[in-house]
């Protein structure tokens, strides 16, 4: 249930707010003094989702109380009811993480917008606490599977990095090598595990929206910016911000990011207040960012700033000795999901898996094993659904077609095509990734490999499509 504490000594306003929130289903407590609020929030340890507090109360100042609550570990979203805060008050409130100052007499429309932002923030924090608990169990250095020297070296490095306060780390390696997994391991086994883990794929957000997504915005900062929006930088305060595909970030925005991570502070789009944060940045890219910075495609100063610690994840081809261990771990996961009992990896199949080039790395291996376990009829991993045959070993496209359909030109496992649409089997024979690749491939083919036409047909953005084309290794189609 949503909980709100109102700290307000004006009786009429206090009871009016209480009624209003109760009508909307909130559980409300009303404190006319700070002493009363102190008893509730410090002595009884009550932590409401939102606090709506007057600034000047008969027995003290609301800002001092917010500072006490923060020192006590209270993380409620805080809104001050006072438009008359001095610049120093506003700066101090921002530093203590207060969301807003609302002038009296109250503009109820503005109050609703601010409460909506606060509710989103409170929900995100709750999710974060839940995730921190399960994340710590799920993501330890041992979650990076493999006994090969390359995998062992990665795990040793992860163990070391988790014990030191590192402000930025750069992860390199091909798609599907585990950069996202490693970012989570670094966060959940590190010193910031209790803080938020916030991730953003820079290639999946249109360029003009990335800035406000990262840094947030003030109301009216641009057309459509209604309420105040806290960006991901702010949401990651006290934790980790994982920027995947950082190489896709616009060069202008790279300078703002560099300044923000160097100063650990920034301004929201359209805002004047400086927001201070304490974040660890983990950036990842499957491009060679050093080369990109030499060519002027990526800011050299940002590259140097984020690459103090650089960890390159090995491709699966470089550690084929780990395939057996990864596959047997995946058996457990997919058996549990499908109720199957696959436990035997026949040596001949292992040999096939080890001689394939795995351009999509562990992600691709997961997809292959998922499909095969789902369609298995006994304890042995069946060969027929692997889609890896001597023909395509070491040269296959990233999503191999099963043996009975080996044409690369046609979408891998789609049903006969209806020219106006596309029929996909929902019997477990295609993973979601397979389907996505199939849809993209088909749309590109139907639009003569014209990326912008495909963008329009898919109702997506150029950045998103470009990212997916790279993810599924379809560049050759559009560059031909
Ligand atoms: N060493 C490993 N042990 C166990 N699982 C792994 C390992 N490496 C990768 N995975 C799994 O493979 C899948 C793909 O990994 P992940 O998404 O982290 O790759 P990535 O390098 O971030 O890819 P991209 O560059 O496309 O974003 C995930 O399900 C991840 O858990």
Automatic annotation (TrEMBL):
Domain Response regulatory: 3-119
Region (Disordered): 387-422
Presence of the UniProt keyword ATP-binding in the record: yes
Ranges of biased composition (kind: Polar residues): 392-410
Residue numbers carrying 4-aspartylphosphate: 54
SUPFAM superfamilies reported for this sequence: CheY-like, Homeodomain-like, P-loop containing nucleoside triphosphate hydrolases
Keyword terms, alphabetized: Activator, ATP-binding, DNA-binding, Nucleotide-binding, Phosphoprotein, Transcription, Transcription regulation, Two-component regulatory system
Pfam family, one: Response_reg
Domain of life: Bacteria
Any one GO BP annotation for this protein: regulation of DNA-templated transcription
GO molecular function, one term: sequence-specific DNA binding
Span of domain Sigma-54 factor interaction: 144-374
Record has Plastid as a keyword: no
Protein name listed in UniProt: Fis family transcriptional regulator
């Amino acid at each position: 249930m949503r909980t709100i504490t109102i700290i307000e000594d004006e009786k009429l306003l206090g009871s009016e707010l209480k009624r209003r929130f109760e009508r909307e289903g909130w559980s409300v407590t009303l404190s006319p003094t700070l002493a009363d609020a102190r008893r509730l929030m410090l002595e009884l340890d009550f932590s409401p989702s939102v606090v709506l507090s007057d600034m000047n109360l008969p027995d003290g100042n609301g800002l001092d109380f917010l500072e006490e609550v923060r020192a006590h570990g209270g993380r409620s979203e805080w809104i001050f009811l006072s438009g008359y805060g001095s610049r120093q008050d506003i700066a101090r409130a921002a530093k203590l993480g207060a969301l807003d100052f609302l002038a009296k007499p109250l503009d109820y429309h503005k109050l609703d917008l601010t409460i909506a932002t606060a509710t989103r923030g409170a929900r995100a924090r709750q999710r974060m606490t839940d995730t921190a608990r399960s994340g710590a169990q799920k993501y330890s250095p041992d979650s990076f599977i493999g006994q090969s020297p390359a995998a062992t070296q990665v795990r040793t490095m992860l163990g070391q990095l988790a014990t030191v306060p590192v402000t930025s780390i750069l992860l390199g390696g091909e798609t599907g090598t585990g950069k996202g997994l490693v970012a989570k391991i670094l966060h959940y086994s590190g010193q910031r595990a209790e803080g938020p883990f916030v991730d953003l794929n820079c290639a999946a957000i249109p360029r003009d929206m990335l800035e406000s997504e990262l840094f947030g915005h003030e109301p009216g900062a641009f057309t459509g910016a209604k309420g105040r929006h806290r960006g991901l930088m702010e949401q990651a305060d006290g934790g980790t911000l994982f920027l995947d595909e950082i190489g896709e970030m616009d060069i202008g925005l790279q300078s703002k990011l560099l300044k923000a991570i160097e100063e650990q502070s920034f301004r929201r789009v359209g805002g004047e207040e400086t927001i201070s944060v304490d974040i660890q940045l983990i950036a990842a890219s499957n491009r060679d960012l050093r080369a990109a910075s030499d060519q002027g495609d990526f800011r050299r100063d940002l590259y140097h700033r984020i690459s103090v610690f650089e960890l390159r994840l090995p491709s699966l081809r470089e550690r084929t000795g780990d395939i057996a261990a990864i596959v047997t771990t995946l058996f457990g996961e997919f058996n549990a999901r499908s109720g199957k009992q696959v436990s035997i990896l026949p040596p001949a199949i292992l040999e096939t898996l080890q001689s394939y080039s795995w351009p999509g790395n562990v992600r691709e291996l997961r997809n292959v094993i998922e499909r095969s376990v789902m369609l298995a009829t006994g304890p042995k991993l069946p060969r027929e659904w692997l889609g890896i045959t001597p023909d395509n070993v070491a040269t296959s496209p990233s999503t191999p077609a099963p043996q009975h359909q080996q044409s690369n030109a046609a979408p891998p496992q789609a049903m006969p095509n209806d020219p106006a649409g596309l029929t996909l089997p929902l019997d477990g024979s295609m993973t979601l990734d397979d389907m996505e690749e199939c849809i993209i491939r088909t749309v590109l083919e139907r639009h003569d490999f014209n990326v912008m036409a495909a963008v329009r047909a898919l109702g997506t953005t150029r950045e998103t499509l470009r990212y997916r084309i790279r993810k599924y290794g379809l560049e050759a189609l559009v560059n031909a």
